[in-house]
Amino acid sequence: MGIVARRSVMLGIGALPLAGRSTYAQSAWPNQSIRLVVPFAPGGTTDLVARLIGAGLQEKLGVSVVVENRAGAGATIGSETVARAAPDGYTLVMSNIASHAISPAVYGQKVRYDPVKDFAHIALVVRNPTVWVANPRAGIRNLADVAARAKAPGGLQVATSGAGSSNHLLVVQMGRLIGTEITHVPFRGAGPAMQAVIAGQVPMMSDSLPSAAAHIRQGSVVAVAMCSAQRHSAFPDVPTFREQGFPIDSDSWFGLSAPAGTPAAIVERLNRDVLAVLATPEIRTRFAELGGTPGDLSPADYTSFISREVANWAPLVQAAGATAD
């Protein structure tokens, strides 16, 4: 619907008696396609989760849910686009640990939105651990190999989905534990980063498990370590960072958010529909295969969750000295 058409709808609402406006607005939504912005390039976990949840919402809502990839600047470009969009329920974003917790601290004043106040947060969709994978020809099979390679002449390069991601912070943390800098190679999403590792352009990658799972099973990359408190049931043969002597746990999360000011009735409707989609056997099975755990938070709880994540990550970013450069 274009600008003129939206004005016509608003004029129609304004002509109604006050008592009828809320009912009209709720019954009229949705009556056009919904744009779901993924602030990363295609092929990564955010994109994968968006397409799964988008397909489910499309069935629930009866309108098209169109995924749009707008990558760059640690997922902040696409997120800012949504923060500045009309709060009418027709533009959503896959909010995530990079765009709404870490990148605001990494990029500082370059981020022109408040990750909490400038959004109406709808639902947490999935959480999952981080996994480090390597090109099979790189000769890296465990974290001892990672440490040796990092300390050798020429050092070690590790790809990620971009500066400001939890994977970026993990590279920085690992370098500090090893006692030498690991070269971070940021891409515009996990998809391009993984392709670079498979092609041998970068020896290894720090990635969210869902986007790496299929490549591990296919043997196009080797799983080096799982960054979780215990081994993951989907990949029981992959040892954790802690098992290999590095006391780090790291996971990622992905959710759904809209511009601040989106009507509460729309936010609540989307939350109910997202949770209904997540409860289906098909989605639960698919997430289990990918190593993800479905979310179950209300809009208020998801907002509080993001607030805590912002508060938790800011000092960690500062302590790690992570920057977007």
Tell me about the largest β-sheet: 10 strands, mixed
**So how many helices?**
12
Determine the fraction of residues in helical runs and give it as a percent range: 40-55%
Overall 3D shape: globular
- By CATH, the topology of the largest domain is D-Maltodextrin-Binding Protein, domain 2
The level 1 CATH classification of the largest domain is Alpha Beta
Average pLDDT, all residues: 89
Termini separation comes to 39 Å
Helix and strand run: HHEHEHEHEHEHEHEHEEHHEH
Q: Radius of gyration in whole Å, from Cα?
A: 21 Å
- CATH architectural group of the largest domain: 3-Layer(aba) Sandwich
Secondary structural class:
alpha/beta
What is the number of strand segments? 10
Give unreliable regions as ranges: 1-26
Structure characterization notes:
The chain has 325 residues and is α/β, with parallel strands linked by helices. The protein folds into two domains: 3-128 and 251-320, D-Maltodextrin-Binding Protein, domain 2 (3-Layer(aba) Sandwich); 129-244, D-Maltodextrin-Binding Protein, domain 2 (3-Layer(aba) Sandwich). It is 45% helix and 19% strand. The chain is built from twelve helices and ten strands. The protein has helices at residues 3-14, 18-28, 45-61, 76-83, 97-107, 143-151, 166-178, 190-198, 209-218, 264-278, 281-290, 299-320; strands at 34-38, 65-69, 91-96, 119-134, 157-160, 183-186, 204-208, 222-227, 251-259, 293-294. Strands 1, 2, 3, 4, 5, 6, 7, 8, 9 and 10 form a ten-stranded mixed sheet that branches. Strand 5, helix 7 and strand 6 (183-186) form a beta-alpha-beta unit. The two termini are 39 Å apart.
